[in-house]
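During the no-cost extension, the postdoctoral fellow (Dr. R.K.) reprocessed legacy sequence entries with the updated structure-token encoder. One reprocessed record is reproduced below for audit purposes.
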Amino acid sequence: MANFRRIISATTLTLSLISLLSTINLSLAVPDDVFDLLPEFGLPKGLIPNAVKSFSITDDGEFEVELDRTCYVQFNELVYYDKKITGRLSYGAVSDVTGIQAKKFFVWVPVTGIKAKPNSDLIEFYVGILSEEFPAEQFQTIPVCKSKAYANPLETVLESYVSEV
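Re-encoded structure tokens follow.
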């Protein structure tokens, strides 16, 4: 009879712990989409284009965003998004970024990090050891993916000419 009571007590304790853990998990649940998640980390929602197919994030901030296609977005610079974007999210920053490139003077450079500048309205983008700041207001709305975009009309003419030669 004593063993039976221990089994019931252990079972009750286990069920109570499972119930508590599921309640904690629900309160720490990840938002339904990445656009809700970014502002919770002090970043604007418009850093990722609208073509998100899925996303996941681990407890230590490693994330993966899958787009339904590769695409281009025109900010101050032309930006290319690969179908898979990865990195590590922490408050006000994204590090170890893969899958995003910016066009700088006819050269595609990989974006390796993004940081919201404290006490300012600037977002800093890192390309290796170099960085450039842009007004955060550019990234407040979710950008639309385009199959191809050009930074300026002269670039369109030059790329057309080069492809014909």
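The chain has three helices and nine strands. The radius of gyration is 22 Å. The remaining legacy entries will be reprocessed before the final report is submitted.
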